[in-house]
Amino acid sequence: MKSLIMIFLSLLMAQTTFAQNYILLKNARILDVAEGKLIEGKAVLIENNKIAAIDTENNIQGSYQIPMEKLKILDLTGLTLMPGLIDAHSHILLHPYNETSWNDQVLWESRAERVARAVGHMKATLDAGFTSLRDLGTEGAGYADVGLKKAMEKGVIVGPRLIVAGRAIVATGSYGPKGLDLSHTVTLGAEAADGSDLVRVVRDQIGKGADVVKIYADYRWGPNGEARPTFSLDEFKMVVETAASSGRRVVAHSATDEGMRRAILAGVQSIEHGDAGTLDTFRLMKKHNVIYCPTLTVTEANAQYSGWKKGIDEMPAGVKRKHAAMTSAMEAGVTICNGSDVGPYTHGDNLRELKLMHEYGLSILKTLQAATIVDAELMNMKDTLGQVKAGFLADLIALEGNPLEDLDSISHLKMVMKDGVIYKEL
User: Fold this and answer.
1) Does CATH number 2.60.120.10 belong to domain 85-378?
2) How far apart are the first and last CA of the chain?
C-alpha cells in the first residue's frame, strides 16, 4: 500500500512538472548589467514567468527533462539579450504638451478619454522594450492608474508592470493658480493636506491602491511666483513614517535646494527633478542613500515646444540647470536612476532619457544600470527584477548590436518578453 502511494505521488509530481511551459533562448550574447560585460555560450531557460537557468544548452537540456510540446525554442543568434528596461518616472495618463497643454488635459479631457489614451501609451511603452514603469501621478484622474494596473495584471490590456502613486500630496494653498475668485472651485491635479491630516491622506491613498506616495517638496508659491519649500521637516517625516509603517516609500518632487534638503533628511526614497540642487545637497543625498531621478528629457522637450533648436540656439536656462544638477550629482557620487517624466513627451520614446543621461556625462554602463538595477530598487523589486539572473522574473529584451557601445542599439529590438510572455518576436 505504501509503495502504491509513493508511485501515485511521484506520478502527480511528474504531471505537475510537465504542466509548466518553458522557453529556451539560445545563441544570444547575454548582457550582465551588474558587471558590464557580455556573456557568450550560454542559453536561458524560462519556466512560466521566471528565469529557471542560465547555462550551456546541453547542460540545460540534460538537467531539465522537458517534453518538446511544452518547450518553445528561440534562436537569438547575433542578438544581445538583456533585462527589460524600467522608467522610474512616468505619467501614463498624460500625452505631449505640444498636442494639448497640461491644463486642458486635466480640465477638458474626460477620464474615459484619458484612460483610452493610456491603454495605447502602455502598449507603446512595452513595444519599446520598457517592461516596467513607476507611474507618479494621474493629474486629476483619480486612481485611474490603479485600475489600469489591475486590468493589465488580468490580461485585459497589454502593458508594462506598474507601481503607482496616488495624486501627489501638496501643501494647502501652494499648488495651482493663485488669486482666483474664491467662489470658483478649481480642479487640481494633486491632493492638498497639512499637519496631522497628512497621516489620513497617506493612509487613504494606500487604501485606494497606491504603491508609493508622492509629495511636492516645493512649488511656485513665493511672493513673486518663485518656487519655495512647502512642507516643514516635521510634516515630511510624518508622511515618510506613515508610509513606512505600511511598507511603502515616499518620493519627492523638488525643484529647490531647501525642498530637497528637507525631503532628504525626512528619509524619502528618491528626489525627482532636483534642478536647483547644490553640490552640498547632493552630497547629503549620497550620505542618506537617496536616489536621484533627473528627468532630463521632459525639460528638453518643453524647451523645444517653446521653439528651442538644440545644437543651434543657446541653451535655455532650464536646460543649463539640468546640466549643472547632473554634474553635481555625479561629482557627489549620488545613485542616479532612469526616470524621464514621459507623458509630456511621447510614450514609447523613453529611450531618449538614457541617451541624454549619457550625453550629460553618465557612463553607458551606469546609464544601463540606472534603467535596470537602480530602477528595480525603486520598483521595490531589486531581488527579482532588472538582471538576467536565475530566479529573477523573465523580463527580457533582445536587440541588434551592443548597448555597452551604443545605447541607440536598444531601438533595434527583435524580442520583448515580460513575465515570460513574448510580446514582440523575431
Assistant:
1) no
2) 52
